[in-house]
Amino acid sequence: MVPEGKFEMVAKTLAGFEDVLADEIWSLGGIDIQVMRRAVSFRGDKTLLYRAHLWLRTALRILVPIHYATAYNASDLYKRAYHIRWSDYMTVRDTFAIDCIASGELFQHSLFAAMKAKDAIADQFVDRQRERPSVDLENPTLRINLHIHDSEIIFALDASGDSLHKRGYRLEKNEAPLNEITAAGMVLLTGWNGKTNFIDPMCGSGTLLIEAAGIAMDLAPGLCREGFGFQRWADYDAALWENLVAEARERIHPPLGIISGSDVDAETVEIARRNIERAGLKGHVQV
């Protein structure tokens, strides 16, 4: 599924957190790091791909580019998609979905572009294996990212599946929830190292407290997730993943300072407490 040795990856993020994300990737061992608009490209191996999903706090998703090309119309796009040997990445029994982002004058309708690419993939399987794989928009075996800017197109495998801001602990939220990526990025931008107290007097559903506690306790943000896209890939290495998870759990330690929050709304405070408990932080974060 992914090349042997080191390969290119692209981590997407929110505007303003690109440098923070680049620092995170560097700390994990990423090389050839390049900051882009709302994204950071880097190189690494499968171990880094897995570790990045466990540890990156400001990444929305991680893509593995597999094909760069140019297309000037729908016919070109179909041909470029058909040119890729999709049997390297999925079987006819697998399901797939295509997320497309299109900008520029040539392709102004991302859903139409995604449909053309979908047709090319399905047609290739029919032509070569006489069977057609199914599309599953909600929970596919393989999620494909198609990025189009003017005539430049990039096909990439979405290794994350669902957005990485969905850590798994925030099942409840107040009326104006703070995104987990934003919360983690805000804390990291302050330079706070977790060795002093952290107080949030308007804690809402507790997202800022939970992300701060994760930083203070060296708690990998991916530990609460139920799963990632790469775990559905044919070359998924369960033993490698389990070793990295065990390594991450061993690194967790109590915070050195007090982490506490409050809010004027009692119901919101109860939501924060339940989210904190789901994050495994009961007794470490006070609300």
Describe the protein's topology.
Elements: E1 7-12, H1 18-28, E2 31-36, E3 39-44, H2 46-55, E4 61-70, H3 74-83, E5 95-103, H4 110-129, E6 134-135, E7 142-149, E8 152-158, H5 180-190, E9 198-200, H6 207-217, H7 238-251, E10 259-261, H8 266-278, E11 285-286
Parallel strand pairs: 5-6, 5-7, 9-10, 10-11
Antiparallel strand pairs: 1-3, 1-4, 2-3, 4-8, 7-8
Helix pairs in contact: 2-7, 3-4, 5-6
Walk me through what this model shows.
The chain has 287 residues and is an alpha/beta fold. The chain has an eight-stranded mixed beta sheet. It has helices at residues 18-28, 46-55, 74-83, 110-129, 180-190, 207-217, 238-251, 266-278; strands spanning 7-12, 31-36, 39-44, 61-70, 95-103, 134-135, 142-149, 152-158, 198-200, 259-261, 285-286.
